Backbone:
């Protein structure tokens, strides 16, 4: 389709970008913090992508390329407005600094219908918005827009290890803030009177939570973590709550497009077509 647009069938650009409207808007919103400015950034990003379409190389996904343009547009606009101090894209991290989760002793899975409640959506949106920028970016790309680790690294121009560290910290920050508020009723303890010696302690398990959820732990480490989880109700609750916070946050209803967004965007694209002429 990109080749057809470049060959002159510019109306196909409308169809090309429709699947990416939400992704671009969500990333713009994570920077601009209000719907009106985010929509302006998103529109400009799509227009710039059209103007630069001939420079797109299929070495990366089209969605990754679009989000990179969106990030650059948002950061440029914020610098111009001098609203925030911009952080380096690959800020050095203190790798030894941990983020402790909320230590719940009970957790029950929250059904997806919970997101139908406005107060739950607002709670999640605010929690994500309050993440520091470098963690918010990675969380949105990886867990909300479901980019791979490597695609997230490429989009943000940071290393894969940095993506993994930032993603884990973002998840733990959200778990710590959201899990106590989303928790509903007690669940039965996984253990009764049995006492099992722990091979690793809870703090080590917390550091492995993200990789456990992503299925990227080495088999031996995963087995060790699993044995701990089988007999530690606190760590099991941390795991369950983190998983469900991720699931709820990724629900399309949490970051919905504003009413009329698509219509206004495509009208803006049509104006760009008129500008370049037949």
Residues:
């Amino acid at each position: 389709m990109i080749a057809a647009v470049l060959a002159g069938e510019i109306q196909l650009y409308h169809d090309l970008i429709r699947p990416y409207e939400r992704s671009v808007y969500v990333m713009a919103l994570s920077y601009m913090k209000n719907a009106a400015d985010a929509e302006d950034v998103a529109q400009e990003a799509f227009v710039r992508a059209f103007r630069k379409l001939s420079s797109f190389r299929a070495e990366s996904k089209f969605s990754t390329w679009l989000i990179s343009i969106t990030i650059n547009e948002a950061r440029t606009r914020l610098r111009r407005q001098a609203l925030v101090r911009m952080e380096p894209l690959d800020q050095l991290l203190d790798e030894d600094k941990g983020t402790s989760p909320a230590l719940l002793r009970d957790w029950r899975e929250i059904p997806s219908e919970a997101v139908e409640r406005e107060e739950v959506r607002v709670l999640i949106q605010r929690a994500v918005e309050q993440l520091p920028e470098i963690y918010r970016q990675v969380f949105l790309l990886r867990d909300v827009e479901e980019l791979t680790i490597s695609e997230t690294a490429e989009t943000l121009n940071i290393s894969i290890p940095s993506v993994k560290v930032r993603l884990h910290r973002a998840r733990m920050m959200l778990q710590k803030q959201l899990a106590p508020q989303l928790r509903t009723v007690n669940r039965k303890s996984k253990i009764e009177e049995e006492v099992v010696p722990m091979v690793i302690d809870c703090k080590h398990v917390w550091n492995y939570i993200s990789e456990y959820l992503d299925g990227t732990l080495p088999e031996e480490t995963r087995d060790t973590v699993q044995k701990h989880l089988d007999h530690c109700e606190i760590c099991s609750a941390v795991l369950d709550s983190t998983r469900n916070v991720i699931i709820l946050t990724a629900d399309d209803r949490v970051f919905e497009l504003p009413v009329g967004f698509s219509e206004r965007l495509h009208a803006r694209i049509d104006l760009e077509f008129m500008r370049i002429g037949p």
